[in-house]
């Protein structure tokens, strides 16, 4: 049975591992980051809508007003939209897992002078804020979580990662954290026996710079497309 290394943080790691096992793979979970909520609440507005680029932004939210729950919530993908619905937002919708398409949807949906609440992590790209600002849309960003890189993997966990056939990479920050934690743990993942399956070219860039050999990039930036690459992830 082929082994796949899952490095994303919980709770996404367990969901991905379960899906892999249903497909007949053996999943090894070795998260390279942990998610911690900031403990802050969200303002009542008024806002014309909400944007969310990660399901992690929704995990620790409490005491959301009914007025906020009734706003349109534009999410990068269906998994994030599902998390938004579970958090109580009735009008959550997905941009199909494509961050670039999400930006297009945002500037098509909101007009200059409108106010948008952006639920985000403390470390993020400025794309959403910059794009909304260019179109005169006021963006109020609330940092709801931190993604904290792990220092190293425990030895018992490290032993299970070395012979994995493939590793899944969901974000550039996570790919960078993967290289760092693997290095500190005494494990070189850039050899020619491990396939690196990446959600986008941006995610793949740190791996290329580190000299990884076997890199494949999903045709579209979502987990379904990423999983299609698994058919090619076999040891030479």
Topology (elements, then pairings):
Layout: E1 3-6, H1 12-22, E2 26-29, E3 33-37, E4 49-52, H2 66-69, E5 72-75, H3 78-86, E6 91-94, H4 99-109, E7 115-121, H5 127-134, E8 138-149, H6 155-161, E9 166-169, H7 172-184, E10 195-198, H8 201-210, E11 214-217, H9 223-228
Helix pairs in contact: 7-8
Question: Describe it for me?
Answer:
Strand 7, helix 5 (127-134) and strand 8 (138-149) form a beta-alpha-beta unit. This protein is 33% helix and 24% strand. The chain contains 9 helices and 11 strands. It is elongated. Helix 7 packs parallel to helix 8. The model has no long low-confidence stretch (mean pLDDT 87). It folds into 2 domains: 3-32 and 150-232, Rossmann fold (3-Layer(aba) Sandwich); 37-147, Rossmann fold. It is α/β, with parallel strands linked by helices and 236 residues long. The strands form 2 sheets. It has a 6-stranded mixed beta sheet, with helices on both faces. A 5-stranded parallel beta sheet has the order 2-1-9-10-11, sandwiched between helices. The two termini are 15 Å apart.
């Amino acid at each position: 049975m082929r082994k796949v290394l899952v490095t994303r943080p919980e709770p996404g790691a367990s969901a991905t591992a379960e899906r892999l096992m249903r497909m007949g793979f053996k999943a090894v979970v070795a998260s390279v980051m942990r998610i911690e909520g900031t403990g802050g609440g969200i303002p009542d507005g008024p806002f014309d809508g909400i944007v969310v680029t990660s399901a992690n932004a929704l995990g620790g939210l409490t005491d959301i007003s009914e007025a906020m729950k009734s706003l349109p919530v534009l999410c990068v993908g269906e998994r994030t939209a599902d998390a938004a619905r579970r958090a109580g937002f009735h009008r959550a919708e997905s941009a199909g897992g494509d961050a670039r398409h999400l930006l297009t949807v945002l500037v098509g949906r909101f007009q200059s002078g409108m106010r948008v609440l952006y639920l985000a992590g403390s470390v993020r790209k400025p794309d959403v804020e910059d794009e909304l600002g260019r179109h005169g849309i006021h963006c109020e960003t609330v940092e709801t979580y931190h993604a904290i890189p792990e220092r190293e993997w425990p030895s018992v966990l490290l032993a299970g990662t070395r012979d994995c056939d493939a590793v899944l990479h969901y974000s550039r920050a996570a790919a960078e954290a993967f290289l760092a934690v693997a290095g500190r743990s005494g494990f070189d993942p850039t050899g020619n026996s491990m396939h690196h399956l990446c959600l986008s070219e941006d995610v793949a860039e740190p791996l290329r710079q580190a000299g990884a050999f076997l890199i494949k990039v999903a045709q579209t930036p979502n987990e379904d497309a990423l999983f299609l690459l698994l058919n090619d992830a076999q040891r030479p």
